[in-house]
Write a structure and sequence with these properties.
This protein has helices at 2-6, 14-42, 50-58, 62-65, 74-81, 162-172, 174-189, 197-211, 219-232, 236-247, 262-278, 284-294; strands at residues 85-89, 94-96, 104-110, 113-119, 122-129, 134-135, 148-151, 155-161. The chain is an alpha+beta fold and 295 residues long. The strands form two sheets. It has a four-stranded antiparallel sheet. Strands 2-7-4-5 form a four-stranded antiparallel sheet, with no helix packed on it. Helix 6 (162-172) crosses helix 7 (174-189), helix 7 runs antiparallel to helix 11 and helix 11 (262-278) runs antiparallel to helix 12 (284-294). The longest helix is centred in the first third of the chain and has 29 residues, at 14-42. It is elongated and about 105 Å long. The mean pLDDT is 77.
Length: 295
């Protein structure tokens, strides 16, 4: 381009000579600056991206700071994190309200939130969630929230919506979405409180029934039930009964929620939700059976 403009210097018209010479000189100078001066000026300049901002909260490697990124490559964790929003909340803020239809899921980065339930006119605390814990996962199923979730301190959290996970993550990156769902299942499975024999077996019967909802028990669902057996510390007789339910569906039994204490009812719902997420896929048959439980 510079050579073409320089050819105007041989024109008989003085204005074309001057235009050609100036344009060629300008282009040559710009090229020289781009090749020599710009790299020298930017050699120590750090360009900050959205991912860099997130790593200030998640740490250099998010896979070590939050269980929802466990088992992912750094690229996969980046894909998930960049589909979220970082939200800040003041102490006392009500993140989720019992009885309402949820749409947001929160993965805590910093701070503490308390899980509360209203039962018999009393407010009962079910526990404290901290860094790495997840709240609002029932939103994945279009159900009503089983608890209130209120901040106890200043909180920073990653916010996911059902649309983020369904339209953006699962459709564009199905393998990453399946891994995210399995991690979410493991997070939910951590929230187990002591149950007596009757409640343990009622829970396992319910979970096994849902494992058969799509007419086949997936290997990932079997693995989840095995982990649940360990966490509930089932005795040998109880284990044999659960293994029998995995080979043959347990007889259909209507789930009578009034026979279960409310704090355990929340655990039952979360355990079934974790089972359905274990294989990284939400089958329509599973959702159809699950929704009455959270309505």
């Amino acid at each position: 381009l510079c050579a073409g403009l320089s050819a105007l210097a041989f024109s008989e018209l003085q204005n074309q000579v001057e235009f050609g010479a100036l344009a060629a000189a300008t282009l040559a100078l710009a090229w020289l600056v781009d090749v020599v001066l710009t790299p020298a000026l930017t050699s120590r300049l750090r360009i900050v991206t959205l991912w860099d901002v997130l790593t200030l909260d998640l740490g250099h490697d998010p896979r070590h700071s939050s269980p929802i990124f466990r088992g992912m490559s750094l690229r996969q964790a980046r894909v998930v994190a960049l589909m979220t929003r970082v939200r800040n909340f003041e102490p006392g803020h009500l993140l989720l309200r019992q009885g309402e239809t949820g749409d947001q899921i929160y993965a805590l980065i910093n701070g503490e939130v308390e899980v509360l339930v209203t039962a018999g006119g009393r407010r009962v605390s079910l526990g404290i969630l901290t860094r790495g814990d997840v709240a609002g996962e029932v939103a994945l199923f279009g159900g009503r929230l089983q608890t209130d979730v209120r901040t106890r301190s200043s909180v920073r959290a990653l916010e996911f919506t059902e649309r983020d996970l369904d339209e953006h993550l699962l459709r564009r990156y199905p393998r990453i979405g399946a891994r995210f769902y399995r991690n979410l299942s493991d997070v939910i499975a951590q929230r187990l409180t002591p149950l007596d024999h009757e409640q343990r077996m009622r829970l396992m019967r319910l979970v096994c029934s849902f494992a058969w909802a799509d007419r086949v028990v997936q290997p990932e669902e079997r693995d989840f039930i095995a982990r649940l057996i360990l966490r509930l510390e089932l005795d040998p007789d109880e284990r044999r009964q659960v293994e029998a339910w995995l080979e043959k569906p347990p007889p259909v039994e209507r789930f009578e929620s009034e026979r279960v204490p409310h704090e355990h009812r929340v655990l039952f719902v979360e355990s079934v939700a974790a089972l359905l997420l274990a294989d990284g896929d939400l089958a329509p048959e599973e959702l159809e059976v699950f929704r009455p439980l959270i309505s």
